[in-house]
Amino acid sequence: MPNPDLSLLINAARASGEIARGYFNASPEVWEKSGGQGPVTEADLHVNRQLSADLQAARSDYGWLSEETEDNDARLKTDRQFIIDPIDGTRAFIEGSKDWAHSLAISENGVVTSAVVYVPMRDAMYTATLGGGATLNGVPLMALQDKPIDTATVLSSKPNLDSKYWANTAPPFKRAFRSSLAYRLALVGEGRFDGMLTLRPTWEWDVAAGMLIVSEAGGTASDQAGKTAVFNNPHPQINGTVAAGGIHAALIEALA
């Protein structure tokens, strides 16, 4: 029997994709957020409004945490929460790249239980449920295993290779990049890349869905200290993100 929470997220993600595609490469209005938090477009806000209306109507007892909604402590009093990034990879969206995503997750008592990362311009629907495995368009996923770190390809931005983050120097893996953290995680779960990392405080909405996809695909997703991430924190950030198949332990060991 389909998981009702997952079905809800899948339908919401597809509806989000329809909205966002209408703005893509159509010169949407763009604003810069305060505090150097990056750009937001009218597409982000439209998707957020629709997700808020549809998801909270369907699960009125679930808390709400979204990048594009002003946060409050009401969610801390709930057992389950939606953790949403209406468009993850907004810069890519603005630039006309296809590599942006909708990231939708449900957490319960700090643990993500259902997750969707949808990449509309590639029609790639990544899904996972706790204990139920991960899929891409219905096909089961398996993260890459048993590979030497010096022959691995890791999704990361260049600043993460700074020596200050590593016990010695960054391992000699090949670096690749995608703008969306959610998509990076999904690609690790898919087995297209060996790992991903971001070594700065990470907003929960960027990684909640993707971390479950990696772990349910047989990989490991943690903070940069190797600890299991806990979600729905009063300040909704975790201590960086490291996700991989067989090279996860080597990445954690190499970090400062």
TrEMBL record:
GO terms for molecular function: inositol monophosphate 1-phosphatase activity; metal ion binding. The keyword Transmembrane does not apply. Keywords: Hydrolase, Magnesium, Metal-binding. GO terms for biological process: inositol metabolic process; phosphatidylinositol phosphate biosynthetic process; signal transduction. InterPro entries: Inositol_monophosphatase-like (IPR000760), Inositol_monophosphatase_CS (IPR020550). Pfam families: Inositol_P. Its EC number is 3.1.3.25. Mg(2+) binds at residues 67, 85, 87-88, 206. Its cofactor is Mg(2+). It comes from the Bacteria. PANTHER family: INOSITOL MONOPHOSPHATASE, INOSITOL-1-MONOPHOSPHATASE-RELATED. Belongs to the inositol monophosphatase superfamily. This is Inositol-1-monophosphatase.
